[in-house]
Design brief:
Largest sheet: 7 strands, mixed
Number of domains: 1
CATH class: Alpha Beta
Structural class: alpha/beta
CATH architecture: 4-Layer Sandwich
Strand order of the largest sheet: 1-2-3-4-5-6-7
Number of helices: 4
Helix content: 10-25%
CATH topology: Purple Acid Phosphatase, chain A, domain 2
Shape: globular
Length: about 220
Amino acid sequence: MPVSFSFAGESLQPLACGALWWPAQATLFVADLHFEKASHFARRGWLLPPHATADTIAALITAVETTGATRLVCLGDSFHDAAGPDRLSDAARRTLMTMIRDLDWWWITGNHDDDAAGRLGGRTMVEGRIGPLVLRHEADPGDPMPELSGHFHPKLVIRHRGRHIARRCFAHAPTKLILPAYGAFTGGLDIADPAIRTALAGPATALVVEAGKLLRFPVV
């Protein structure tokens, strides 16, 4: 059974892959895909796993097929830089453009890619809104409206007896929900970091989907 929680009066389902599913709106949300991150760094002589874009697209396809989503909203930094769409392989470009044609696809602009992803099709916007939820790349702590965002790549870090375990997580506050980075090899920022705590503008809880359960960790 899928796990769910209530946010802004709506029932949302966080997925283990890092996506967020809103059944009532048939909408899937993902953040920080960072397509073509590896090719960005390869030009600078830094070698990263070269299949990150393909792996991320494959994970997206699985999430769409599993949920039956008809709308997909990308919450910014979909590409690692503005030239990323030009570096897509032919296969990746064809797959993405087919998905974009088949879905109501929204690109929220990010600080890495601005509106570059829109060249592939779909809708491009700085901010969006569906029902009670405002959609942004970076949380606005001064806005009291319920909000979904990305940008910070939140992860939960548990330290115990000299060891630490890190898991990507959803950063949850009364009016803010920050999604984890969906892209492969994107890294993360500890949810206890002051930057995330400031962005959440309220008591923070890390939500982690593990073994079919939704685990909640208050951040102190």
